[in-house]
Protein: RNA helicase
Organism: Vitrella brassicaformis
Amino acid sequence: SRMEVLERLSLISKVTTELYNHWGVEDKDLAEFVVHLGEESSHVNEFESKLEDSGAKVSRSLAETLFTLIQKLGKKKQPAPSPASHPGAASASSSAAAHGSPAAAPPSRANGASDDDVSPVSPHDRLLRERARRFPGLAVPDNRNREELQMERPDEHAPVSSAARKLLLREESDNTRDREGWRDALASERERSRGDMEDRSPTRHDDDRRKRHRDESHDEGPPRYVPGRRMPVLLYGIYDGTVSRVMDYGCFIALETAEGRKEGLVHASEIRAEGKVLKCQDVISRNTAVKVKIIGIAGSKLSLSMREVDQETGEDLKPRKKKTQHDMDDEDPLSSYANPARPKEMERPGFGGLTGIKLDDNTFTQEGSKRQKKQLSDLEKWEAQKLRHSGVLPVNEYVEFDEEQGLMPETEVAADVEVEIIEIEPAFLKGQTTRTGAQLSPIKIVANPDGSLARAAATQSALSKERREVRDQQQRSLLDSIPKDMNRPWEDPNPEPGERTIAQALRGVGASAYEMPEWKKMYIGKSVSYGQKSKMSLKEQRESLPIFKLRDALLQAIHDNQVLIVIGETGSGKTTQMTQYLAEAGYTTRGMIGCTQPRRVAAMSVAKRVAEEFGCRLGQEVGYAIRFEDCTSQDTQIKYMTDGMLLREALIDTKLSKYSTILLDEAHERTIATDVLFGLLKQAVRERPDLKLIVTSATLDAEKFSSYFFNSHIFTIPGRTFPVEILYTKEPENDYVEAALITVLQIHLCEPEGDILVFLTGQEEIDTACQTLHERMQRLENMNPPPLIPLPVYSALPSEMQTMIFDPAPPGCRKCVVATNIAEASLTIDGIFFVVDPGFAKVKMYNPKTGMDSLVVAPISQANARQRAGRAGRTGPGKCYRLYTEQAYRTEMLSTAVPEIQRTNLANTVLLLKAMGVNDMLNFDFMDPPPVQTLINALEALYELGALDEEGLMTRLGRKMAEFPMEPNLSKMLLTAVDLKCSDEIITIVGMLTVQNVFYRPRDKQAVADQKKSKFHQPEGDHLTLLEVYKSWQANRFSNPWCYENFIQARALRKAQDVRKQLITIMDRYKLDILSAGRDYNRVRKSICAGFFRHACKKDPQEGYRTLTDHQQVYIHPSSALYNKGPEWIVYHELVLTTKEYLRECCTLEPQWLVELAPNLFKKADDTKLSKRKMRERIEPLYNRFEEPNAWRLSKRKG
């Protein structure tokens, strides 16, 4: 009847809602299949087991909810018909299950097949078959012998070429460069002497010497500088000249040459040898006679230098080989650092040899190198207009004045180019992406989205914002207390120089984070020890570790088992001692011993410690390898490395033939690289019976590792554990930070002695907690409580501050360590008796729809909670205060944490697997398979970058991209720069992007810091601003005082320099040209756009920008050089979510580049039709633009 149909639809709708809340899948076919299972079940246990047999992971609470719904609203259970009478029943249920990813139905039988003819199929295999049918792009057959995957492997220890050596020498300080130059000169002199001795024909030797002398004299050009003589235009020639014009950025010099009168520019950095001149008018004036040297020729333009010429004698202070204009025409002017052995197999006329990018006729000409006009904010435009109307400024000082073309129009009328997204899917992903409406299931990181823990995490951001507003209000009240006459310079339209700076400094009086506690003042200005102090010798320290007593048993277990799972708590010695035990037992005779670490700092510090215990220099028998840094040699026996570095070695050799034993340390952290290594090493162990694999973990959940690795043996190292009392709250806590602070004070005032460990989620919360604890302890001074020493620990804290937590508290004091989840397993802190666990941590989460990684506060897992509680039982019996209910622990926390591979972007991982010949992502042996939607998005992104072809197979470009240890966007940008002959600049930009923040902005000197930063701003955007910072640092001989004066972090620049050196070495190893574009920043911008075209945005008519791919509203970050400049088109490096969706590191682009560089994603819109973007825009009236939206409605009016 109709009523039954409506009840059935209501049941399906309710089940669909429940599945979406818990699984994130909104599929009615799947809901019908779940209802079918529920109607066929007589009890909830039977229903739960049927769901699990079908491949669904379901909690007990969800199973009970669904079963209750189905029993209440579903139809009564009827006897199941026989398969013979209804042959299509099983097929129908199977097709219904095919639309849902968490479950699959029993397979349908072939026509006339009997039970004996059909082999049993496991639910897991059935699910894989269904997924392979739905997603054929993820089930492409593996092929490791394709021609595109074969690359000539360079020698990693081969010396660099002379061109790369010149670039590396430019990165050294003057003293190092002098030493290197002396060595090179000595080596060349020995080579010359050896050649003279080997030549036995004096006649031929004399002839060759005369011929060589003639050739050299011809190449050297005209003789040296002669006063008053007119010479032809020569590169590196010296001429007399007269200053014709003086500008802020340099001066123009008129030259008298043999071809007639010429004019060239001396940049401000080329006037004096001491460095860049800030104001050229102070050091030079018009009609001054000078001597200059031509250092660059670009068409009719001359680039001159005064600092390389002695202004009295005309002597060349920096001699270089002179070249005539004819030589410049015959020779590529950009090939000064070109690699002579670069590959030529892919080069086509008019196209790039590596990326296939189309090279226009004006790509490397003067027309193509025209720089972008400087963007002005509205305030700057208004000031320029008023100055122009006042008649005070001469024409050549107008903002619109150009040195070459004179007075330019105020606004350049550019062609309105409309760009649209191509809705056609690649052939291997047809019907599988979200473009065709496919609904895929994301991974949920919260067990119960409606629970108390999820609500507390959601409200915490609002509470943090409220705390920030309170601090800002306190600061504003302090500013208001400043006498009004101190603020008067801000009202003066023309203040004296420096007054604005003084006033801004006064405004930062109350800007300090909090008053520095006494415990911190004790350490300021004093030497701080690194690490834990010990009076024992190295031998005694090794023998005191818990693993030492089990040395023989451990070695026997390794000998008897090819794969071994080792369980040991932090501090048991497994990381530092197991590799030495293996080396002492002779395992290094068949190859190296490799040990992976999830963090770069851990790999370096552990290797340094093991080298000291092993008795060798770091880099000899014991070394380490991290990204952009390799400290190993031919003699290395024990090698510590990040898991990503071992994954890159597997790219070269999947069997890892040079290793005899591999240790996967801290495997419980489940990084992406570790999860991929699980599958690769599992295959390598099958192919190499002599390979030993040891997987170590600090948690007790080892059964999963054991069952994955062929039910391997588990070896447990007993730790120094004591009983821990677990205490839960009776009611859920809404503000876990406040609850943690109250708990700490209760422990401090009521419990016996013992240090406290508090777990919070991030730096802001930790700083706030330390500040609040210090303030509250000051209020309690009249009660004379024992001192409480708050110690923050997070990754951004300096190392000397982090190591304070290892020092014991002074007598009569209690130490309170406030840390992130880094203290769960990575740190060993003695003396902790009390642990305060709010139950939250920051988790990196990737949103495939927006393509954005964000840190989300989420509940921890039960395994993490047990790990945190164990921290209180290291020294003696302890207590763990869990700030959540026991019910929340059991029902709202996952049993184990969601691995990183299921919640982050996998583009780089898929690229590496494709480079290894692994195309079938569904059947790759992941311990926990990543979500299908993330894999589809990764394949789609790689296809758009040109790394995959229409069949989903890797291209030659993709294989080259996989060789660089960076994200695919950056490697595509770098390879495009090689074709556009600007790789020198892009290498620098990549190095600067790898560091966190180059500029620092002290609260008490914000105005000065902003003023210094604005000097580096480039009209093209932040990427070129970072390039200009590095160039200026290089021009100032890598000076630390220069960094201090300009509010730049010298440590960040040093790190960027190290990355640049390593990239130079890698590119030289693969015979890629490293060329400079000079001042032609258009090629640099085009290279950036080639890698990050998916991050393109267009200015929104209302506010901010709109991304082209998903039309998301975004805003330029206030720290950007393009802030308030309003360029029409930009491309960004990363998107961060704070109070708004902000764009970091933005760069301007030309819209026609998108169609040219990304033909798989963008196309030019039809000029005869209204574009999709314009169809989405709304006409907003201007007369009420400042009113609230919808304020005109009657419902919004008051009274």
Observations:
- The domain at 545-717 is CATH 3.40.50.300 (Rossmann fold).
- The two ends are 52 Å apart (CA to CA).
- The first helix runs from residue 2 to 23.
- The chain is about 35% helix and 15% strand.
